[in-house]
Amino acid sequence: MSDQPKTLRELIALGAAYLDKRQIPDTRVACELLAARLFKCGRLELYRHLDAAPEARVVDALRRGLQRVAQGEPVQYVLGQWAFRNLTLKVDRRALIPRPETEQLVDLVLRSPRVQGVVKPLVVDVGTGTGCIILSLAAELREGVFVGLDISPEAVALAQENAALTGLAERVLFAESDGCGEFDPASVDVLVSNPPYIPSHVVDGLAPHIRDHEPRLALDGGPDGLAVYRALLLDATMVLKAGGVLFLEIGADQGVALRDLLDEYGFANVEIHQDYAGRDRFATGVQSV
Ligand SMILES: C[S@@+](CC[C@H](N)C(=O)[O-])C[C@H]1O[C@@H](n2cnc3c(N)ncnc32)[C@H](O)[C@@H]1O
Questions:
Q1: I need a surface site. Which of 47, 166, 261, 282 has the fewest CB within 10 A?
Q2: What's this model's pTM, rounded to 2 decimal places?
Q3: Is 241 exposed, middle or buried (CB count within 10 Å of its CB: 0-12, 13-18, 19+)?
Q4: Does residue 250 line the site of ligand 1, with CB under 6 A?
Q5: Mutation to probe ligand 1, out of 96, 156, 172, 216 (largest number of atoms < 8 A from CB)
Q6: Is the CB of 180 inside a 6 Å radius of any atom of ligand 1?
Q7: Do 121 and 147 form a contact (C-beta atoms < 8 A)?
Q8: pLDDT digits 0-9 by tens, 252-277
Q9: 47: containing domain
């Protein structure tokens, strides 16, 4: 991107053309997001600045950001922050970029009569990543004890930074853990997880901006994509109270497998729920004993 743009509109068009040549997806959106960050406004408010002449420092900063995106880095990591429900979270390569479907997982938890019926529930999020799920639950549920766990110390550190940034550090505890088997038996009211669920051979074929930049630990669910679910269900049967609820995000083609697994591990009221695109995306069940 070498030309000197006269307006922000021109700068964005040049940036998009630069990315188009490098086969980057959603180039216009990426440029607008970067520009919005520099103008400290929302992407939809950018139109107010489109005819302004961008200062040299803005052109330089956008150029640097575009170079990173052109090399395949997700625009969210370049921005360094991303919105999830009502929170703005720090995002970087220590953890998965929160996806919009996961906002619906939080909705499922919040709307559950079983969750609403518990006073001060112990809520545990396994594989917390940025902390997006458990921080949102702490922010949106009035009462409770909230714990986010991750096998990755880097993710735990990022989640703790996000707790501080969102003013929730006093309400959410984060810890490094493989699964959640260390809770006392029958002590947890709500277990929620968006674990890695992509089969290993599929991870290898993912788009480079995902495969080469987001942590493999956040994506790879083992040979059939179900390895972390199996371990998690075993832990869940130990630590959930009778009547405690499990909420899982799942791959679009894993509805049947997850229903079978939840049945196999003795969960009651097993349900598979769809996302807004109509694909199987969540599995829920209730601890029966
Ligand atoms: C798909 S990411 C989800 C991150 C975040 N909850 C979200 O929804 O954006 C899965 C997370 O699970 C963590 N993880 C993988 N295996 C785990 C295990 N056995 N125990 C705990 N966390 C695990 C990864 O480090 C990663 O942060």
A1: 47
A2: 0.95
A3: middle
A4: no
A5: 96
A6: no
A7: no
A8: 999 999 999 999 999 999 999 999 99
A9: 8-79
